[in-house]
Design goal:
single chain; about 140 residues; alpha+beta; Nuclear Transport Factor 2, Chain: A; about 30% helix; elongated
Length: about 140
């Protein structure tokens, strides 16, 4: 086998690998795109699949909702800070409208992926709150 045959084999393998990688990336991006949806106004009805009742939240989420209504205290320093809505999955609002809160996950030493994001001018009495268990990839409006 000469140098040209070896090189041709590597090029062929490289093309096969690149094709496989392209398929994997395209599939992964397609999955993420399922979560993407256009922003809605606060007055638009939310589909039932995009809702969760307060009693259906994990116990820790219910406790965080109570802490929000009481104005704290919150477990994490970042709780109550402005949520930028960079994902644009929540209805559009001016900067500072949304605030995020951590929903603790049992047995984790870090904040985890679960959050509640509330919008409104009065943090203790939000206009709407949303729950995410996948770190902002999807949201469900919390019904009270």
């Amino acid at each position: 086998m000469d140098l040209h045959q070896i090189r041709a084999g590597w090029i062929k393998r490289g093309k096969t690998w690149l094709t496989g990688l392209t398929i994997v990336l395209a599939t992964g991006l397609g999955t993420n795109m399922v979560h993407a949806r256009s922003p809605q106004s606060l007055s638009e009805p939310v589909a039932a699949a995009d809702q969760i009742h307060l009693t259906q939240l994990p116990r820790q989420g219910q406790q965080v909702m109570e802490q929000i209504r009481q104005g704290g205290p919150f477990r994490y320093e970042k709780d109550g800070t402005v949520f930028g809505n960079r994902e644009r999955l929540l209805p559009r609002a001016k900067r500072g409208y949304y605030r995020e809160y951590t929903v603790p996950t049992p047995d984790l030493r870090h904040r985890g992926a679960r959050r509640i994001v509330c919008g409104g001018e009065q943090p203790r009495n939000p206009d709407a709150c949303y729950y995410t268990e996948d770190h902002y990839s999807s949201f469900r409006r919390i019904l009270q």
